[in-house]
Amino acid sequence: MTDLVTETSPSARFRRYLKVPGRTRVEPDYYIPYWRLEGQGPGPTLLVLGGVHGNEFEGPLALYELLQELPEKEFVGTVIVVPWTNLPAVEACRRETPLDGKNLARCFPGSPEGTFTERLAYSVGQELIRGADFLLDLHSAGDAYTSPPLVGYYRAPGEAGERAAAAARRFGLPVVWEHPTIAPGRTLSLAAEWGIPALYTEAPGGQRVRAEDVAAYKRGVYCLMDFLGMMAAEPPPAPQVFLRGDGDTDGMPTFRRGGLFRSFVQVLDRVEEGHVLGQVLSLDGDVVETVRAQQAGRVVFLRATPTVQSGDRVALIAPEMD
């Protein structure tokens, strides 16, 4: 197992390890490093996850900067930081866990008797999420897609949904996305089951990390701590775009033909139903498919890698909130 932070780090004394028990007697246990930082007085427990997908780097890099800075700041309560939640996926630079091919972000609440990813989800849920007062899960668009910097939340019934909605507006990212429903298997769906308010984030991704996205994620953590009454932070910039709708990327429309995708839109463009999003060209240059929007709204996720196969996802469009 790679030790991603050396013992010379100022934050090393806060390090702990999350145990993922082996499923059989001959299978070794696995340990995921995380950091538990205690403030100067009692207060809420904020859990921040990065690296649930192993090819998304904005969150982990922001959390390493946070681990350098936070011990020197005045705050109350507890901050639990997990830069690389799915360490085997990180080491393979893959969205899925290479040990079993499963997507950790679809496996919660997991199972103590399941495959590695299911056992990892169970350990994260029982040992970390269950004890949190607020959950923040940092993501980005991954390898083949792009998105604007955004913060999203599930508008769960009751106080948890209200607090998530208020926190999202204070996080400081330009796009706020509210989901009236949430698919099972997510960290947010598990948090909602336990009445824990939660946010997630997205950034352009593409295995290219922009310094401004890392800075915005770190600033967002401080703004969230301010919202929770854990510390004082600078006022965040106001959101510019408010979206409401299904955020399930698994349900995105797909290409019918393979080839080279030429996009005619960019993320956050407004489109109407039937608007041409782009075309798929054969290697001879012929148009083999014209891709159209299936609903009106803003383009949130968009295929960024030109080479596509039949069945690859195209784009996700979300309606604007009134």
- CATH top level of the largest domain? Alpha Beta
Largest sheet: 9 strands, mixed
Query: What is the domain total for the residues?
Result: 2
* CATH architecture title of the largest domain: 3-Layer(aba) Sandwich
Number of strands: 17
In what order do the strands lie side by side in the largest sheet?
1-2-4-3-5-9-7-8-10
Which parts are unreliable, with pLDDT below 50 for 5 consecutive residues or more? 1-7
Distance between the first and last residues' Cα: 49 Å
Helix/sheet category: alpha/beta
At the fold tier of CATH, the topology name of the largest domain is Aminopeptidase
**Total number of helices:** 6
The quaternary state of the protein chains shown equals single chain
Instruction: Tell me the helix content.
Output: 10-25%
Mean pLDDT: 94
Beta-strand share of residues: 25-35%
The run of helices and strands is EEEHEHHEEEHEHEHEEEEEEEE
Explain this structure to me?
This protein is an alpha/beta fold. It folds into 2 domains: 12-244, 3-Layer(aba) Sandwich (Aminopeptidase), CATH 3.40.630.10; 252-314, Beta Barrel (OB fold (Dihydrolipoamide Acetyltransferase, E2P)), CATH 2.40.50. It has 6 helices and 17 strands. It has a 9-stranded mixed beta sheet with strand order 1-2-4-3-5-9-7-8-10, sandwiched between helices. α4 (159-169) links the parallel β7 and β8. α1 crosses α6. The longest helix has 17 residues, at 211-227. The radius of gyration is 20 Å and the shape is globular. The N and C termini lie far apart (49 Å). 46% of the residues are buried.
